[in-house]
Amino acid sequence: MTSTSKTASPDAHEAAVRVAIEDRIAIVTIDNPPVNAASHAVRAGLLEAVRTAEEAGARAAVLIGAGDSFVAGADVREFGQPPRAPLLPEVVRALEKTPVPFIAAIDGNALGGGLELALGCAYRIATPRAKFGMPEVNLGLIPGAGGTVRLPRLVPVLEALMMITSGKPVGTRKALDIGLIDDVAEGDLLQAARDLALQIDGRERPLALLSREPVIVPDVHSWQIAVNDATKKTRGQNAPREAANALRDAIDMAPDAALEAERARFLKLKDDPQSAALRHIFFAERSVARMDRLKGVEPRKVDHVGIVGGGTMGAGIAAATLLAGLPVTLIERDDAALEAGRERVGKLLDGAERRGLIDTARRAAIDASLAGATDYDALASADLVIEAVFEDMAVKTEVFERLDRATRPDAVLATNTSYLDVGAMAEVVADPGRVLGLHFFSPAHVMKLLEVVHPPKVADDVLATGFAFGKRLRKICVPAGVCDGFIGNRIMSAYRREAGYLLEEGALPHEVDAAMTDYGFAMGIYAMQDMAGLDIAWAMRKRRAATRDPNERYVDIADTLCEAGRFGQKTGKGWYLHDGTSRTGRPDPEVEAIIVDASRRKGIERRSFSHEQIIDRLLGALRAEADAVLAEGIAASPDAIDVVMVNGYGFPRWRGGPMFATRKG
Predict the structure, then answer these.
(1) Could you give the CA distance from residue 104 to residue 69 in angstroms, rounded to a whole number?
(2) Among 95, 72, 75, 94, residue whose Cα is nearest residue 83
(3) Cα(5)–Cα(17) distance, rounded to whole angstroms?
(4) Which of 48, 96, 136, 242 is catalytic?
(5) Are 429 and 559 members of one domain?
(6) Above 70 in pLDDT, residue 10?
(7) How far apart are CA 347 and CA 658, in angstroms?
(8) Secondary structure percentages of the chain, helix, strand, coil, to 5
(9) Helices assigned H by DSSP within 271-421
(10) Are 512 and 499 in contact (CB under 8 A)?
(11) CATH code of residue 29
């Protein structure tokens, strides 16, 4: 075997892409940590690598990514800069046209521009853990380097439609089944790619994708049904619709014309406000957890987690922790409650197994790592304990007093409270520095958001532990100060309050909800309350009644509904009538009569509101409370508020969050 390496000028692209020639096989390695994004240096390096392979007379070339990824997409940081040649379409075309057949050897992620690079290669081989996707719609874009034109010439058109309009990746098995890859490397990927290179030596090269016909083209009727299904959850968003149109062009137009049309759509969407909003939230989610006080601070080790309370929230936290590979000890007040809690956790794990997130062997290991007890002494070895009991200060402080006696002095203690004063809870512990808030959102094993609440006396390494734990659970962690409701629930309370004012002044629940869904929310506030259950918030309002400011404007319509036994979907009646004829229920004349009577009792003259007026009122209230949260230092930045409201409360992602959407200028 002979081996030579390409060495030339010390340009940036030389470091980002390496070329070695081994037995006339070019090994082209993309090395652009952390995810091998297709930056300018990578693009330039790949063009040079193609030329090197040609000049060396290579019989084949292997394109592989260093580290744990093939290429996880474009370098999003370049979107705000003038384009720099070579652009990705040129690189893909070079891979496609070179006489040296390129083999894409894929481990980890081949996403967006990474998958487009793979489509330019003659062959594709992947490890079992690889992921393939075109997630551009998540940034308000469509593929811009031929993805909409080449993909449907390799996989069935309707499979391409689902991949491109949803942005969701597919795994290796699915990729093999639909024809996206040629083979699976069960062992060493590079060696498998080399073996394939030897097998294809002298073999006629497969047709380039642009020279092929689309695969299994549906009839017009089936196509329209598929498009409607693919875009029905993205109403108001431009990118999924444009992605479907680009795929239609790929079917109807000549390939070169379809490529031009795709590029024009990509550039137009790149300047669309929706894309700017989606890029904003993309970067915000990746930066919002940074805190200056934690620079260089090492978190405490967490190898064993205790959870007090096996209700809905506690079970969800337990499932999330177990799925992250950490053993859990669940504490409940008696054997019956403990068994019920274990059953709740088991059902959540059943769901994960059904969805293919874990296999049978992994499930067995997880089951073995869940322990239960009714004695707090079982937490003696726990590194982190999270209480998830009833939302009552007296109950929670009693739990913390017991935890202080039962746990090691260096164990981190956390509360999952949604509203209560974490600092006050910490004061019942001998060392308040080991207490913080970890506010999960329901369902805790699904929702990505985690508010990491820092009370005044929390130690830096304890706070760092909260963030490290959240990251291990693959949560988006947002630091929050202590106040009633922290960031999200406090702002949402103002939002709900304003919605109540609108009802008193003339709007009806279905009108408020319709305005919200038109704006981009998946569900309106009243439909959401019916789904969650009106009795939970009612119980909280009753507990707070004694301390409520008598001068505060208070809307009692929801209380009246609850007094009538209207608790939402679970009772068949709430803000809406739930009789099975509609997913979210239908307007009920009884509720309208209750609302109108409430206005009459307070002497409020009712008037009509347009959808725009409703949204303006709701956003105005939200923004005012958000500004107060910022001014008080509860949220560290406007980005933190946007991340919380998008990921925890359904604010339309493609509007960037409430602060971005209502920004001045």
Answers:
(1) 12
(2) 75
(3) 12
(4) 136
(5) no
(6) no
(7) 35
(8) 50, 15, 35
(9) 273-287, 312-323, 335-354, 360-368, 393-406
(10) yes
(11) 3.90.226.10
pLDDT over threshold 80, residue 579: yes
DSSP 295: T
Domain count along the chain: 3
466 and 575 in one domain? no
Q: What is the CA radius of gyration of the chain?
A: 28
- Prediction pTM value: 0.90
Would you say residue 600 lies in a domain?
Answer: yes
- Whether omega before 443 lies within 30 degrees of 0, making that bond cis, reads yes
Report pLDDT for 536: 80
Q: Which two tokens stand for residue 605?
A: 């003259």
What does DSSP say about strands 109-111 and 328-331: parallel, antiparallel, or unpaired? unpaired
Cα separation of the two ends of the chain: 64
Active site (annotated) includes residue 22: no
Q: Which residues contact 139 (CB under 8 A, 6 or more apart)?
A: 76, 239, 275, 278, 279, 282
Task: Print the domain residue range for 397.
Answer: 296-480
pLDDT given at position 2:
34
Q: 38: which DSSP letter?
A: B
The continuous run of DSSP H or E covering 106 comes out as: strand 102-106
Pick from 101, 107, 122, 95: nearest CA to 65: 107
Average pLDDT over residues 276-292: 95
The answer to whether residue 136 is catalytic is yes
Categorise residue 96: left if φ over 0, alpha if ψ from -120 to 50, beta otherwise. Answer: alpha
Question: What is the rounded CA–CA span in Å between residue 33 and residue 53?
Answer: 24
Identify which of 444, 439, 611 has the alpha carbon closest to the alpha carbon of residue 516. 611
Residue with tokens 């929801």: 558
Pick the catalytic residue: 48, 54, 55, 116? 116
Interaxial angle between packed helices 273-287 and 238-252, expressed in degrees from 0 to 180 and rounded to the nearest 10: 120
Q: Would 612 be classed as within a structural domain?
A: yes
What are the tens digits of pLDDT across the range 345-378? 999 999 999 988 899 999 999 999 999 999 999 9
Q: What was the pLDDT predicted at 14?
A: 67
- Rounded CA-CA distance 628/650 in Å is 21
